């Protein structure tokens, strides 16, 4: 007999993926250049040239280290380089024993949830949030609970968080810079979060872990940097992907880094190797472990995302949209011009604008635009956006 829960999931597919597929089909009818597809967060800028050269070097060297199995926890030299980079950058004493190489941030999250929760335990996250967090958590047997958003700032809703932080909560999941809002959690927000977690861990008599999902860490605007959550709370598990910073999501490479000051940090990393045995993760690609270890201080040219942010934020606010200005990522999350964002986004399809309603992000009435597309296309989409607003709402 087939497993019913996975059959049931077929009727609840990702709205983002469905809209992306619609955009592709529409593009076959009218030319994809005429479809203003803001659905999928797929990096649009080329990888750094050095990454291409480094990949060619390792492929042409063609040793067992390049194409063979890596150790269960990742290639030792790669883990050492990641630890060295994190220590220099964030001032925490990381060593290779705190690093576990993964298949992207999703692979890191899969291990993090299994490290610190049992079936029936609760994980809290904050709306707006990445919708795939539900299957990521719920399919472990733990239960994801969502703290309602502070729609004024999209920082953490502290009052609601305190209400929902019960003894059943074993982990809190954050995503900063945030998908879908683009908001970067401030140092004040992270300090307050850390203070509450310390207070409640002591009150409940058990550790509460902070799981920090950081694939957009390098995409921050206006000359700012994203504060590192691990600096504000010892029991933090950092989950990172190179997908966005280096524009290589298809290579599926990232890492889990346990704060060196976390209780049993080295044991946790060793446990990850055992978790991999049960979920079929076993060893991300050796080639791209080696390649990304040489790219830890580089990114792709991410400036196009800030350019696109500026264009869209100005146009949207000029058209009367309410919108928190993104501090990073390549997403913007305005309030729709009517209460039902699903209806709003359906109307937009008539103008070949592919927008994602905010309901599955935990913020009904809002919509997401993923502006990781060519600036020329962003600029051409403005006329369609103006026509949509004028025709449907004026």
Summarize the structure.
By secondary structure, the chain is α/β, with parallel strands linked by helices. The strands form three sheets. The chain has a seven-stranded mixed beta sheet, sandwiched between helices. A three-stranded antiparallel beta sheet has the order 9-12-11. The chain has a two-stranded parallel sheet with strand order 1-10. The model has no long low-confidence stretch (mean pLDDT 96).
CATH superfamily of the largest domain: Type I PLP-dependent aspartate aminotransferase-like (Major domain)
Note the run of SSEs as H and E: HHEHHHEHEHEHEHEEEHHHEHEEEH
Strand content: 5-15%
Point out poorly predicted stretches: none
Helix content: 40-55%
What is the CA-CA span between the terminal residues?
54 Å
Q: Strand count, sense and closure of the main sheet? A: 7 strands, mixed
**Overall geometry:** globular
CATH topology of the largest domain: Aspartate Aminotransferase, domain 2
Domain tally:
2
**Whole-number radius of gyration?**
21 Å
CATH class placement of the largest domain: Alpha Beta
So, CATH architecture of the largest domain? 3-Layer(aba) Sandwich
Mean pLDDT: 96
List the total number of helices. 14
Q: Pairing-aware structural class of the strands and helices? A: alpha/beta
DSSP E strands, number: 12
For the largest sheet, list the strands in their spatial order: 2-8-7-6-5-3-4
